[in-house]
Design goal:
This protein is mainly alpha-helical and 302 residues long. It has 2 domains: 3-47; 81-301, MetI-like fold (Orthogonal Bundle). The chain contains 13 helices and no strands. It has helices at 3-47, 51-56, 71-79, 82-113, 119-128, 138-147, 164-188, 192-200, 205-216, 218-233, 237-241, 251-254, 266-301. It is flat and about 75 Å long. 26% of the residues are buried. The model is unreliable at 297-302 (pLDDT under 50).
Length: 302
């Protein structure tokens, strides 16, 4: 057999092995995606079924459906009422995300772009808060929220408890450390010559922060904004703990309102869970391509 034929066989064999490995990888990713999507798919399936049909069937939720409709969605939309809970969630989530990014970006700018004695200590203090489990501060936080006075425009009862501003502050406090850590590491990769050139041109610290550094960290801000929105939007612990008024709770904590002392309708809870998850899914799908493109541009500029 000639050397050309042997080389051709090796090339064909290598091509077949690469094709098989690619097919195996695709199968693995499809199975993994289905495993992760299964809870949402099953919630959608449950939300489309009447509860009476499930309750009367001996197989319960694993029975074959006789009816699939959108009645549960219409019921929770009107009886919720969901528009009010969506608004409550936006009032908490959007200011918390913006405030967290603003504070953490200023702290990260100070730590990464200037050399001073306590920059490492400040970074450690901010990041140490992420090591503290939220459950250990429930009692002191509850007492503080009931004794700290708050002016009338921000609170209707003169306290932080049962107020939107209280929930915004606790989310900002817990998320600032992580964002500061990420942004400070990202800012350290930026060229120091840019800041030095701006200082030589007479730019002040705030000008350098707003017009030089912040445009370059847009990819990191986009990533953090997406993560923060998801985390704060999906919060259940603080929203349930710091609110006693059901009409003020965000949409995730409002799921608790569907239950009663005599039980709850799991099909309506599934329908409301699906509706509650839609904003985060839509936001991620909208920002995904822009986010990846922004990361590529940011790395090229770095």
């Amino acid at each position: 057999m000639s050397s050309f034929a042997m080389a051709g066989q090796r090339t064909t064999g290598n091509r077949n092995r690469r094709r098989l490995s690619r097919v195996g990888l695709h199968i693995f990713l499809i199975v993994l995606a289905f495993i992760f999507a299964w809870p949402m798919l099953y919630a959608i399936y449950t939300s489309l079924r009447p509860y009476g049909e499930i309750a009367l069937n001996p197989n319960g939720f694993f029975s074959t459906p006789a009816t699939l409709n959108l009645n549960n969605y219409f019921n929770v939309w009107t009886a919720g009422p969901l528009p009010m809970f969506y608004w409550n969630t936006a009032v908490v989530t959007i200011p918390a995300v913006l405030l967290t990014l603003w504070i953490s970006s200023m702290v990260a700018f100070t730590i990464s772009r200037f050399s001073w004695r306590f920059n490492l200590l400040v970074l450690m203090i901010f990041t140490a808060g992420n090591l503290l489990p939220p459950q250990v501060i429930i009692l002191p936080l509850y007492k503080l929220y009931n004794i700290i006075p708050v002016p009338a425009p921000l609170s209707d009862n003169g306290r932080l408890y049962d107020q939107f501003v209280g929930l915004i502050l606790i989310h900002t406090t817990f998320q600032t450390g992580f964002c500061t850590f990420v942004l400070s590491n990202y800012m350290k990769t930026l060229s120091k010559e840019l800041v030095e050139a701006a200082m030589i041109d007479g730019a002040g610290v705030m000008t350098i922060y707003r017009q030089v550094v912040m445009p370059l960290v847009t990819p990191a801000l986009a990533a953090l904004a997406t993560l923060l929105f998801t985390w704060i939007y999906n919060d259940f612990f603080w929203a349930l703990l710091l609110f006693k008024t059901g009409d003020k709770r965000p949409i995730t904590a409002a799921l608790n309102n569907l239950g009663s002392e005599f039980g709850s309708d799991p099909t309506q809870i599934a329908a409301m869970s699906v509706l509650a998850a839609i904003p985060t899914v839509v936001l991620y799908m909208i920002l995904q391509r822009w986010f990846v493109r922004g990361l590529t541009l940011g790395s090229a500029k770095g």
